[in-house]
């Protein structure tokens, strides 16, 4: 029931606490899945205390359990175990705390875990988080490598020793995080954000040794997988051994089978690179030498050709051809000029034969009137007209004394 309160008539703490307890205690028992943490058994008591943590969110609830119920689970449960419990919510009014009163505990089966991982795999795959085009290329020689691993772990030693053995100058920035248990995914995400925000870090390695399926569950956490997919720095997954395959392997830009393999994949071997440089240098020297020899032989072959061995021969041949063409041109021109001269003489003779001067030289004369008109008809003149007579060597005047038709 709702309480009527006011500043002048407030409710007592016990009233509110008892009201909350009465409401919550009416709730029935429920089955809850989570991960056990902070489990403790007090001395001389039959009650087990602990926390039940959500596996995908940073939310938890306290729980209490009878010691017999807790120890009856086979195999025994410990911190980090994934369980399903039957519990009833209880509110303790005296302490003002809420806890689950557990009456039964069961392990989450391996089959169920695998099924959940498979469903998450299909979900992320449908969103394209595993697509090849999202993978970022690793730098050939990173100057600084970010490493996320457990403190004083074998994975840390494997990555550092193998990387420095291959390239002694490589530098590391290490962020330690829990690599199993309920807090692992959150701590790894925090370390990832720190390294991804450092501009000097060129590649990030998340490394952990082998373990059971439950131990590697944090590396199939959806929040961690999405954080890796959104990182701007290339991420290398080096979790467990070759058979282990957490979903982080699929989201990361590169999957290494072991931490040792990660060191080999991200850092080149200085000796191998020097051998490669030496090999390429020798190959280049051989290629240049071969090319120079080939070009020298080709040049020698060109120089041995007659055109270069005795260039005057070709010039002399061309000179003879030019002289022959000049002589032929001269003969042709002379012949044509001779023919043109003969033709001109014939035409000149024809002109002379047809000219009036030739006619006059044969004894004829031309009579012209006073105005210069040639006399062609008898009617043009009359007795007493003064005419001009033109002969071959001059002219004289004549007077018409009479005329007579034919």
Automatic annotation (TrEMBL):
InterPro entries (UniProt xref): Exonuc_VII_L, Exonuc_VII_lsu_C, OB-fold_nuc-bd_dom
Gene Ontology biological-process entries: DNA catabolic process
Leading EC class: hydrolase
Positions of the OB-fold nucleic acid binding domain: 13-106
Quaternary structure and interacting proteins, as annotated: Heterooligomer composed of large and small subunits.
Family: Belongs to the XseA family.
Identification of the protein by name: Exodeoxyribonuclease 7 large subunit
Native species: Kribbella flavida (strain DSM 17836 / JCM 10339 / NBRC 14399)
């Amino acid at each position: 029931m709702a309480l009527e309160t006011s500043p002048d008539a407030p409710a007592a703490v016990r009233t509110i606490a008892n009201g909350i307890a009465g409401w919550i205690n009416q709730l029935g028992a429920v089955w809850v899945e989570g991960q056990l943490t902070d489990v403790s058994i007090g001395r001389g008591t039959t009650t087990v205390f602990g926390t039940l943590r959500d596996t995908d969110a940073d939310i938890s609830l306290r729980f209490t359990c009878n010691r017999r119920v807790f120890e009856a689970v086979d195999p025994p449960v410990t911190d980090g175990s994934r369980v399903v419990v039957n519990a009833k919510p209880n509110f303790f009014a005296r302490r003002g705390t809420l806890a689950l009163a557990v009456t039964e505990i069961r392990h989450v089966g391996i089959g169920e875990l695998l099924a959940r991982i498979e469903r998450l795999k299909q979900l992320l795959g449908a969103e394209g988080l595993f697509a090849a085009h999202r993978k970022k290329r690793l730098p050939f020689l990173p100057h600084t490598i970010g490493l996320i691993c457990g403190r004083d772990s074998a994975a840390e030693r494997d990555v550092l020793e193998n990387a420095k053995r291959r390239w002694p100058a490589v530098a590391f920035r290490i962020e330690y995080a829990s690599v199993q248990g309920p807090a692992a995914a959150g701590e790894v995400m925090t370390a990832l954000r720190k390294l991804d925000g450092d501009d000097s870090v060129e590649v990030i390695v998340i490394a952990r040794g082998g373990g059971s399926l439950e131990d590697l569950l944090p590396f199939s956490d959806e929040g961690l997988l999405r954080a890796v997919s959104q990182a701007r720095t290339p991420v290398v997954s080096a979790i467990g051994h070759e058979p282990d395959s957490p979903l982080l392997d699929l989201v990361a830009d590169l999957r290494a089978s072991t931490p040792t393999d990660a060191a080999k994949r991200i850092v080149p071997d200085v000796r191998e690179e020097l051998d490669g440089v030496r090999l390429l240098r020798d190959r280049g020297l051989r290629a240049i030498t071969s090319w120079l020899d080939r070009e020298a032989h080709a040049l020698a072959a060109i120089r041995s050709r007659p055109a270069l061995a005795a260039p005057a021969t070709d010039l002399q041949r061309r000179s003879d051809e030019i002289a022959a063409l000049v002589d032929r041109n001269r003969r042709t021109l002379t012949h044509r000029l001779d023919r043109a001269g003969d033709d001109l003489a014939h035409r000149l003779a024809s002109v002379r034969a047809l000219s009036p001067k030739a006619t006059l030289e044969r004894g004829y004369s031309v009579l012209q009137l006073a105005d210069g008109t040639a006399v062609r008809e008898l009617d043009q003149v009359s007795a007493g007209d003064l005419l001009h007579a033109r002969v071959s060597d001059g002219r004289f005047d004549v007077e018409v004394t009479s005329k007579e038709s034919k």
